[in-house]
Amino acid sequence: MSNYVVGISGGIGSGKTTVTNEFAKLDVDIIDADVIARDVVAPGTEGLRAIVAKFGSGILDQGQCLNRRALREIIFSDEQAKTWLNALLHPLIRQETLRQTIEATSAYCMLSVPLLVENGSYKTVDRVLIVDVPEEMQLQRSMARDKADETLIKSIMASQATRQQRLEVADDVIDNSGNEIALVKQVANLHHSYLKYVGAIDQS
């Protein structure tokens, strides 16, 4: 079990996955709440059955998997639907997150949570790392990646913590507005620091 947990977050389009992929290359166990969120609504799961019962079979794609874009459009236009979905999924996600944290074997592990700040999860980890980019870059990257319109992305950004709110709870910040070389260097420096914190390398 990893006794030291670094929580990582950032707004939509900030590049959290790019950053965690770099930490993974350094043999850090990554526990990704986004991946877990997909797993708990995979075909055949209790989560997906409940969603279909609530919203109907139209919420499925041609392969009978959850149409995440359709669901996202529903919950960002219907606050009650969003509340219902959170009440269903959050306990399932927490349970699996805890299991994976307990089973992590690296010197420290990294918990990637999109809503780390919003849901107060930052209080439960040992250190908070925020991936930061300017808001205009968030918007442009998200629109390009998700092929979504500007209104939807802005709605998602508005529902998240502000850039300032994220930075206020950060112990460490990665500036992901530059190139890959700059990013890799920042990750390497932080990895060295985290290994020091857990006593995995000499602190002298």
TrEMBL record:
Q: Which organism is it from?
A: Paraglaciecola mesophila KMM 241
Sites binding ATP sit at 13-18
Which reaction(s) does its UniProt entry say it catalyses?
A: 3'-dephospho-CoA + ATP = ADP + CoA + H(+)
Q: What does this protein do?
A: Catalyzes the phosphorylation of the 3'-hydroxyl group of dephosphocoenzyme A to form coenzyme A.
Question: Which PANTHER family does this chain map to?
Answer: BIFUNCTIONAL COENZYME A SYNTHASE-RELATED, DEPHOSPHO-COA KINASE-RELATED
Q: Where in the cell is it found?
A: Cytoplasm
InterPro entries to which the protein is assigned, alphabetical: Depp_CoAkinase (IPR001977), P-loop_NTPase (IPR027417)
GO MF annotations in UniProt = ATP binding; dephospho-CoA kinase activity
EC number assigned by the record? 2.7.1.24
Q: Write the gene name.
A: coaE
Give the record's pathway: Cofactor biosynthesis; coenzyme A biosynthesis; CoA from (R)-pantothenate: step 5/5
Coiled-coil ranges (or none): none
Gene Ontology terms: biological process: coenzyme A biosynthetic process
Q: Which residues cross the membrane?
A: none
Question: What keywords is this UniProt entry annotated with?
Answer: ATP-binding, Coenzyme A biosynthesis, Cytoplasm, Kinase, Nucleotide-binding, Transferase
- Return the similarity comment: Belongs to the CoaE family.
Q: Record's Gene Ontology CC terms?
A: cytoplasm
Classification of source organism? Bacteria, Pseudomonadati, Pseudomonadota, Gammaproteobacteria, Alteromonadales
Signal peptide from the UniProt entry: none
Q: What is this protein's name?
A: Dephospho-CoA kinase
